[in-house]
Specification:
By secondary structure, this protein is mostly helical. The chain has two domains: about 30-195, no CATH class; about 195-360. Helix content is about 85%, strand content about 0%. The chain has helices at about 10-30, 35-55, 60-105, 105-110, 115-125, 135-160, 165-180, 185-195, 200-235, 240-250, 260-275, 275-300, 310-325, 330-350, 350-360. The radius of gyration is 27 Å and the shape is elongated. Mean pLDDT is about 75; it is low at about 155-160.
C-alpha cells in the first residue's frame, strides 16, 4: 500500500532554501557553464569508447578516465589546432591577394565589360536606390578587403595572445569530463535519487537528453563538416583556397535558407565575370547537386533522434538557439525544445483524467 505524503511548512521552507542555494551555486559557476555543458556533450558522445576502456581496466577507474581524456585530446584537439592555424594563414593570403587584384585594376576590367555595364544600367533603372558608381564599388571593396585582412592578422595575434585563456578553458572541460566519465553511474543514480519523478519519467527525460544531444551534434556539426569538405574540394578545384573556403562553407551551413550558397554562389559569379564560365558552371552544379544533397540527405538521417519534433520545431529550435546562445545553440535549442515536449507529454499523462473531464464539460 503506497504511503501518502503531506507537505508541511518546513518542507516548503527547505525547498525554498534549496532553490536559493542552487541559484547561488549557478551564479558561481555561470562563467564556466560553457565548458561544463561541452564536457557533458562530449561525455555522451565519447562514453561508448570510454566504456570499452573501462571494461579492460575495471579496477582502475581513474586510469581509464585519464586514458579516455588523453585519447580525446590526441584525436581531436591537437589536429584542430593545426587546422585552425592553416585556415588563418589561407585567409590572410586570400584577402591580401584579393586586395592586390582590386587595386591593380582587376575589378575595373570586369566592371568595364559590356554585360556588366548593361546589368548596372538595369539596376539603376529598376531598383529604388541611388545610381551605382563603379569606381565607388571598387574603392569600397578594396577598403573592405583591407579591413578583413587586418582583422584576420589581428585575429591570429589575438588567438596567440589569448592562448592562456583557451588552454585554461580546455583544461576545465577535460577536468569536468574526467569526473563525468569516471563517476557516470554515481551521477545518474544521485540524480535519480533526488528527483521526485517516477523511474519511468526519469528514464524518459535522461534518454531524451542523450538522444537529442547526440542527434543535434551529429545532425548539425557532422553535416556542416561534410558540406565543408565537399564544398572546399570544389573550391580548391576551381582555384580558390580550399581549406579556408571549405571552413567558411561549414559555418555558412548553419545559416537557415541561404546556407552554403552564401559562399559558392558569389565565387561562381566571380569566375563567370573573369571569363571562366566552365568552372562557374561546375561550381554552381556542384553546389546545388552535391553540397545541397549533403544537407538534404545527411541532416535528416543524422537528426532522426529528434522524433518528437517536426521540421518546423527543429527549424525554430536551431535558429533560436543560434540567436540566443551562438554556435552552441545548435545543441541547446533542440534539447530545450525536446525536453519541453517530453514534459508536456508527462503533463498530459499525469492530468489525463482532469483533461478528459475538461474536454467533456
Amino acid at each position: 500500500m503506497a504511503s501518502s505524503f503531506k507537505a508541511e511548512p518546513r518542507h516548503w521552507t527547505l525547498i525554498a532554501a534549496l532553490g536559493l542555494a542552487a541559484y547561488a551555486c549557478y551564479v558561481l559557476i555561470a562563467p564556466y557553464v560553457g565548458s561544463i555543458v561541452l564536457a557533458f556533450i562530449v561525455s555522451l558522445l565519447f562514453f561508448p569508447l570510454h566504456e570499452r576502456i573501462d571494461n579492460k581496466l575495471k579496477s582502475h577507474p581513474n586510469i581509464a578516465a585519464t586514458l579516455s581524456c588523453t585519447l580525446l585530446t590526441v584525436m581531436i584537439i591537437i589536429p584542430m589546432i593545426f587546422v585552425a592555424a592553416a585556415i588563418l594563414r589561407q585567409g590572410i593570403t586570400f584577402f591580401t591577394s584579393a586586395y592586390e587584384w582590386l587595386t591593380s585594376g582587376g575589378a575595373k576590367q570586369i566592371l568595364s565589360d559590356p554585360s556588366v555595364q548593361e546589368a548596372l544600367k538595369l539596376v539603376d533603372k529598376w531598383l529604388p536606390v541611388e545610381s551605382i558608381n563603379p569606381q565607388e564599388l571598387v574603392t569600397k571593396a578594396a577598403s573592405t578587403l583591407s579591413s578583413l585582412s587586418s582583422q584576420m592578422i589581428g585575429m591570429s595575434s589575438q588567438i596567440l595572445g589569448d592562448v592562456t585563456g583557451v588552454f585554461v578553458n580546455f583544461l576545465l572541460m577535460l577536468f569536468v569530463l574526467f569526473f563525468l566519465l569516471r563517476d557516470h553511474d554515481k551521477i545518474i543514480n544521485t540524480l535519480r535519487h533526488v528527483s521526485p519523478l517516477s523511474r519511468t519519467q526519469e528514464d524518459t527525460l535522461l534518454d531524451e537528453v542523450e538522444k537529442v544531444a547526440k542527434s543535434a551534434v551529429l545532425g548539425s556539426f557532422l553535416t556542416a563538416l561534410a558540406q565543408g569538405l565537399v564544398g572546399g574540394f570544389a573550391m580548391w578545384l576551381a582555384g580558390f583556397a580550399g581549406l579556408f573556403w571549405g571552413t567558411m562553407m561549414a559555418f555558412a551551413s548553419f545559416i537557415p535558407v541561404v546556407g552554403t550558397a552564401l559562399i559558392w554562389l558569389p565565387a561562381a559569379g566571380y569566375l563567370l565575370l573573369t571569363g571562366e564560365w566552365q568552372w562557374a558552371a561546375f561550381l554552381i552544379g556542384w553546389g546545388v547537386l552535391v553540397v545541397g544533397s549533403v544537407d538534404n540527405l545527411l541532416r535528416p538521417l543524422l537528426m532522426q533522434g529528434n522524433s518528437g519534433m517536426n521540421t518546423l520545431l527543429i527549424f525554430f529550435s536551431l535558429i533560436g538557439g543560434l540567436h540566443v546562445y551562438g554556435l552552441m545553440g545548435v545543441i541547446y535549442g533542440p534539447i530545450i525544445f525536446s525536453l519541453t515536449l517530453v514534459l508536456f507529454r508527462m503533463y498530459e499523462t499525469e492530468f489525463h483524467s482532469f483533461l478528459e473531464k475538461q474536454d467533456n464539460t
